[in-house]
Amino acid sequence: MTVNNSLKIDLHTHSTASDGTCTPTEIIKLSEQQNIGAVALTDHDTVAGLDEFIDAAAKSSVIAVPGVEISTTFERREVHIVGLFIKHKSNKLNAFLKEIQQGRHVRNQHIIAKLQSRGYDITLEEAAAHADGDIVGRPHIARTLLKKGEFASMEEVFEKLLKRGRPGYAPRPMTSPVEAIAQIHAANGIAVWAHPIFRQINEYQWCRKAIKYLKRHGLDAIEVYYSSFNHEQSSALLAYAEEFELARSGGSDFHGDSHDAKLGIGNGGLHVPFEFYEELLVKAEKYR
């Protein structure tokens, strides 16, 4: 395969299998329409959409990269580890994800109980009805309240009830990034730290320290291009990738209509070059 920098790639997307609004097939069709050469489906804590995703790509010109995004915690901060090129039928990986999904379910029960105690007419079954896949999360709870006419927008639900520190928020148990990296490697994938400075504007010192630690535990790459990154942030991450000999990745964090970020272009200025895909593919050979 030769480098084609006229093509862009998007290695961070979500479908209806988790909290996105587009099906895996629709993501492939959109990618083809927008001249995206390679796209990864990285649903939260699930690989349920990957069979459909891979089948749809086989009928298109788009390269499908099977992936997953795993929420972890490190030094009391949330760290998202994306697995790319994973063998998604791995029994070990699926058992690991099942444990995480159970933690999500318990958290959802706590959120619903908090909302009910404050007079909101909502059940977990109603929220689950808004999820096309097995993953039910705060976006589905928010969508349920929105449909009931309780709020004017999803943003309002989160701002008043569901974001951290609000009365309907409940934490959930998370694994460590080291464990997530190990599980991804066991499934023949590579581990990428997604949006390393997301919600940590200008906290470069902590980010560099965390990268140094995670590199020792097998981190393969970091997202250097992301929908909300500015030039300064991407430049810093590109320097860290070079310093620690990590591969470079990037993506929009596309969720469909529920988020502003658009497939392939993020908030308008995103362009992840095709050469990143080839760089990551070479990294992935290490785990085959």
Give the key terms.
DNA polymerase, domain 1, alpha/beta, 288 residues, globular
Describe this structure in words.
The chain has 288 residues and is an alpha/beta fold. The protein folds into 2 domains: 8-97 and 174-287, TIM Barrel, CATH 3.20.20; 101-162, DNA polymerase, domain 1 (Orthogonal Bundle), CATH 1.10.150. 41% of the residues lie in helices and 16% in strands. The chain is built from 10 helices and 8 strands. It has helices spanning 24-33, 50-58, 91-117, 124-128, 138-147, 154-162, 177-186, 204-216, 231-243, 274-284, and strands at 8-10, 36-41, 63-74, 77-84, 190-194, 221-226, 247-251, 272-273. An 8-stranded mixed β-sheet has the order 7-6-5-4-3-2-1-8. Helix 1 (24-33) runs parallel beside helix 2 (50-58). It is globular, with a radius of gyration of 18 Å. The chain starts with 7 loop residues before the first strand and ends with a helix.
